[in-house]
Amino acid sequence: MGVITISRKMGSAGSDIGREIAKRLGMRFVDKKILSAIMTEYGFSDFDEVYGNVPSFWERFDSMRAQTIGFLIKTIEAVGSLNDIVIVGRGGFGIFEDYNDVLNVRTKAPFCLRVERQMEKHGMSKKEAEIHVAQNDKVRKAFIESDFHMAYTNTQDFDLVINTGVVKPERAVDLVCDAYGTLMKDGRCDTSKSIKDIEVDPVLYEHVAGMIDSVCE
User: Which residues, listed in sequence order, are joined to residue 6 by a DSSP beta bridge?
Assistant: First the structure.
């Protein structure tokens, strides 16, 4: 088996879709909470602050920020090497670009619908939700472009881009599961790169495996 990464815009139901995919396919689900817990265990307690803010010009060249992002990449690689994993967010699609056994998915939705979903989920006013969603879009764009050096709007980085304003989340689960099954069966014609080829520090691997297994029991 392999890995599914889901990049999502806030309010596009990407996390809910990821959880349902993991449940249906018998895979483990890893999101920001689990990744943040691993980062904190290794002393990167400021990770949420690094990820949750648009970096200033000088912060983009800060050595601590670079170390934090560097360890995040190693952590996600360790997570992916476990197999049978759905990873939501944190730039997973950029780390596992063009792997033969990784399906990269992005979910999106119209701004107005994403605002409505946040209002319903968090009890926000429309204005509060608009500000919240717009700020989150800026942060995620800055994270991908400043720290991963990838174009946030480049859809060529994904195997599937699903608009949950048109495709209902439950149908999106069907589409991703079908596409994943096809990828696992047929692979890609242009690469032989596999997650089994990733070199992971054994200590980090065991730690990550233990934390994820404890959460997913």
Answer: 88, 105
Long-range CB contact pairs, 158-162, < 8 A, 24+:
158/7, 158/93, 158/104, 158/105, 158/106, 159/103, 159/104, 159/105, 159/183, 160/103, 160/104, 160/105, 160/106, 161/105, 161/106, 161/107, 161/108, 162/105, 162/106, 162/107, 162/108
Instruction: Kindly tell me the burial class for residue 168, based on how many C-beta atoms sit within 10 Å of its own C-beta (0-12, 13-18, 19 or more).
Output: exposed
How does pLDDT run across 106-156, given as a tens digit for each residue?
Answer: 999 999 999 999 999 999 999 999 999 999 888 888 777 766 666 666 778
Closest residue by Cα to residue 55 from 39, 74, 68: 68
Instruction: Give the per-residue pLDDT at 57.
Output: 40
DSSP three-state, residue 85: strand
**How wide is the angle at C-alpha 54 spanned by C-alphas 10 and 207, nearest 5°?**
75
Q: Give me the residues paired with residue 103 across strands.
A: 4
The rounded distance, in Å, linking the Cα atoms of 5 and 134 is 23
Low-confidence ranges of the chain (pLDDT < 70): 45-63, 146-153, 216-217
The whole-model pTM stands at: 0.86
- Which structural domains are found in the chain, ordered by start? 3-212 (3.40.50.300)
Phi, psi of 43 (to 5 degrees): 95, 5
pLDDT at 84: 92
Helix (H) or strand (E) holding 182: helix 169-186
